[in-house]
Amino acid sequence: MSKKSLPTTQKQGKARLGDQIRSIADRLKQETDVQIQATSRILGAAAQIAENHDRLINEVVDIVESDLNAEKQVNQKHIYTVDILKQQFKTLRDAKVHFNLKVTSWESLANKLNTASCQTTIIQNKPQSNQGLADTNVINSEYNFNNIENLTVFLEPDVAEMFPNSEAVNEALRFLIRVTSKNR
Asked: Hey, is 125 helix, strand or coil?
């Protein structure tokens, strides 16, 4: 049988089948385009997340380095040597008057100043007494935020291991404040 001899209904059936195949192919192409666009958006978002992550890490590193440098400078200010004292004061008498200390030599003055500096640091780091706290599990529901100096915060044991005193807690919170305020 030749093509010309096919009945009209068979020709129409093949034409409809061809149209259906083309229609399916067009829908698949459209779905593929949508998937490509979605994948492109996802990759773009992932790249943005990675960029933000790197930026945040760099900011944290900068803040930590800045804090370490500031701490180093503060610690260096509290260390007195005979040479530093001699540079600051013309005579031992001038230095003794300035610091209001009774010493007989530059060495003893430096030792007393360094000892006094260490004692001040120890006093400042001394944890506050918890006397008067009958039950640490009871939290006062009437918060007075106008009197922040008397604010007491209870740390869970796992947190207290990492932050042994109020200074450590305050430094960690200040660091968190700086990081979050930089990212706003």
From this structure: helix
Handedness of CA 106, 107, 113, 117 (dihedral sign): positive
Instruction: Give the whole-angstrom CA distance, residue 177 versus residue 51.
Output: 22
Specify the pLDDT at position 37.
94
80: burial class by Cβ within 10 Å (0-12, 13-18, 19+)? Answer: buried
Largest Cα span, the chain? 129
Contacting residues for 178 by C-beta, under 8 A, at least 6 apart: 63
What is the tens place of the pLDDT at every residue in 64-117?
A: 888 888 777 665 556 788 988 999 899 999 999 988 889 999 999 988 888 765
